[in-house]
Design brief:
Layout: H1 15-26, E1 29-30, H2 42-53, H3 66-80, E2 90-93, H4 95-107, E3 113-118, H5 124-130, E4 134-139, H6 149-155, E5 160-166, H7 178-188, E6 194-198, H8 218-221, E7 224-229, H9 230-233, E8 242-245, H10 248-261, H11 267-279, H12 281-301, E9 317-321, H13 330-341, E10 343-344, E11 346-347, E12 361-365, H14 370-381
Helix pairs in contact: 1-13, 2-11, 3-11, 4-5, 4-10, 12-14
The chain binds glutamine.
Residues 14, 16, 33-34, 170 line the site of glutamine (GLN).
């Protein structure tokens, strides 16, 4: 048996797999891993059927189906008032995960530092280390989970190559404001830092009247790779189709790697998404209101519980403070909740290197039918 020197020693199975498996083993309602329990829009499914029958079964172009890249450019113009060249500034990827991985691999290497803001989505740190670069974890402000600009400024060095940010933010539900983007632009102005902006929840914001995308920020957009995911927008996380937008020179670098990692993405899926993105912009325009109702339902249902909730500003996640129920660690509490109360959640500390000693937070996914949320809330209110 050959021995392997692990490139990711100490890395176990992701929390999403662990908690979803536990939920399934014990028959708990699964509010842990983020995925909806409602259907893909019928028009999108119909379009997929049409394209499956239309013999679209060979490789798509490496950078993405031109129709889909055009549709993405159209959406970017409509929502973020940014003109992008569909041919050279958009690449379709196998989900946001591969876009993030490829971007980090393409831009960072040995000797480089990449800043991530904790709590940070779990794929960033391993991708940075696999690229040979050094992750630098900077905590977001406790409580609000806003960017701590003082700490961010002091973490930056001449070796800082990239900043990974995520808005709306998983797992906290925090959103970055346009003012904060101006502040970030000022901080980065004289540097050579690339921003990798994970905006997979771009259509789920509940307080602001628009999402502050890096694509909409004239100055930051020139140094940014902006990532999104159709899985979130069209309730099809299993399709694993995402994309990245970046200025031409950055995109050329991205594609140097992308062509050898995946080359291209499933052709019929791209055709279906291209049709639907163009024919029904109402779907994503209505998404903030759709998910705001779900967030409000979930928060109201938990009003009678001993959980403490500050309503999420974005994403389809809600944090809950369980200090009144238990002083166990969030991992122990999540396991207990799944096994004993029959509702699975995600412990927040797995996304952090450091945290306040009294932090007792778990994350619930509210992208579920009302009946699922009611059943879960009944169980959560009983403890
Ligand atoms: N992003 C999803 C979440 O935060 C899970 C994705 C995954 O399972 N890898 O729950």
């Amino acid at each position: 048996m050959p021995t392997i020197n692990s490139k990711l020693p100490g890395v176990g199975t992701t929390i999403f797999t662990v908690m979803s498996r536990m939920a399934s083993d014990v028959g708990a309602i699964n509010l842990s891993q983020g995925f909806p329990d409602f259907n893909v829009p019928p028009g999108l499914l119909a379009s997929l059927h049409t394209h499956l029958d239309a013999d679209h079964h060979q490789y798509a172009p490496m950078a993405g189906l031109p129709e889909l890249c055009e549709a993405i450019a159209g959406k970017t113009r409509r929502l973020y008032c940014r003109e992008i060249d569909a041919l050279t500034e958009v690449t379709v990827t196998s989900g946001a995960t591969s876009a993030l991985f490829t971007a980090i691999e393409a831009c960072a290497g040995p000797g480089d530092e990449v800043i991530v803001l904790d709590p940070a989505y779990d794929s960033y740190d391993p991708a940075i280390r696999l690229a040979g670069a050094t992750p630098v974890h900077v905590p977001l402000l406790p409580g609000s989970f806003a960017i701590d600009f003082d700490r961010l400024a002091s973490a930056m060095t001449s070796r800082t190559r990239m900043l990974v940010m995520n808005t709306p933010h998983n797992p906290t539900g925090a959103v970055v404001t346009a003012d904060e983007l101006d502040q970030l632009a000022g901080l980065l102005r004289k540097t050579n830092v690339i921003v990798l902006s994970d905006e997979v929840y771009e259509h789920m914001f509940f307080e602001a009247d628009r999402h502050a995308s890096l694509s909409a920020h004239a100055e930051l957009a020139t140094r940014s790779l902006v990532v999104s995911s159709f899985g979130k927008t069209y309730h099809c996380t299993g399709w694993k189709v995402g994309y990245v937008i970046a200025p031409q020179e950055l995109m050329a670098e991205f594609r140097r790697v992308h062509q050898f990692v995946q080359f291209c993405v499933a052709t019929p899926l791209q055709h279906a998404l291209a049709d639907y993105l163009e024919s029904d912009p109402g779907h994503y325009e209505n998404l903030p209101a759709f998910y705001r109702i779900k967030r409000d339902q979930f928060c109201t249902l938990l009003g009678e519980s001993r959980f403490n909730l500050s309503p999420s500003a974005g994403t389809y996640f809600q944090l809950a403070d369980y200090s009144e129920i238990s002083d166990a660690s969030d991992m122990e509490f999540s396991e207990w909740l799944t096994r004993e109360a029959g509702v699975a959640c995600i412990p927040v500390s797995v996304f952090q290197r450091t945290r306040a000693p009294d932090q007792r937070l778990v994350r619930f996914c509210f992208a579920k039918h009302e009946a699922t949320l009611e059943q879960a809330a009944e169980r959560l209110c009983a403890i």
